[in-house]
Specification:
The protein is of the alpha+beta class and 221 residues long. The chain has seven helices and five strands. It is elongated, with a radius of gyration of 24 Å. About 6% of the residues have low confidence.
Length: 221
């Protein structure tokens, strides 16, 4: 709509837009367009603070297509959620310090109710999918209780920090305790590249299940 109005006013190029009065643009169109005009005229208006900030936490939660009563499909679901959250974490170049996992029944069904969650602290912040999935499954084992018709589960990555603000390990740290080896980084980079090129879950952790198209916990969308 705004583009059509500009064209109707005889503004067909960036040069035409640059030559407009900022006050005229604001009166006839919007503050956002006014700021664009001022920027074109050499007046800085759009600062770094206007850029969206990184999320403080990342979550992947879903309601199941049917009630889950067994542990195996729940393991597959939580593994899938942790993998998706880890991918989002790497996309915003962050590391997670804690992993929260929860399961619950539906409060709208006349069934025995169950709602539990747990936070699993990590030894060191990471964006590595296997490590985050392992932590999520550790938490799941602590809160899972058979005999309930679970309707929803989820994974949340907490206490996020930028991946370039990680403190180096102390000289006397135990061997192999480096924060994230170059090999792990390359592995995650390759995994993300393949999944983006050939489709999500082309490469995935084994605990998400082998039969990708026949998951008992198939999600509601």
């Amino acid at each position: 709509m705004q583009a059509q109005q500009l064209k109707a006013a005889g503004i067909n190029s960036v040069l035409d837009l640059r030559q407009l009065s900022a006050s005229t643009v604001r009166a006839n169109w919007s503050v956002v367009l006014e700021r664009t005009v001022r920027e074109l005229q050499g007046q800085p208006c759009i600062g770094l603070d206007d850029a969206p900030s990184a999320k403080k936490q990342i979550a992947c939660t879903r309601s199941f297509g049917q009630a889950v009563t067994e542990e195996l499909p729940l393991i597959e679901a939580v593994s899938e959620f942790a993998s998706r959250a880890a991918f989002k974490l790497r996309k915003q170049r962050s590391l997670a310090s804690d992993v929260l996992v929860f399961v619950r029944t539906s409060p709208f069904r006349d069934v025995p109710q169950y709602n539990r969650s747990i936070v699993v602290p990590l030894v060191r912040p990471t964006a590595n999918t296997p490590e985050l999935t392992k932590a999520a499954l550790q938490g799941l084992r602590h809160i899972y209780k058979p005999g309930f018709q679970l309707a929803k589960a989820g994974v949340m990555l907490l206490d996020l920090i930028p991946d370039n603000q990680l403190q180096a390990e102390l000289a006397f740290a135990e061997p192999g305790a480096n924060v994230c080896s170059q090999g792990q980084e390359r592995l995650m980079c390759a995994m993300d590249m393949l999944n983006e090129r050939f489709g999500r879950n082309t490469v995935h952790v084994a605990s998400t299940g082998a039969e990708r198209n026949a998951m008992e916990w198939a999600m509601n969308r």
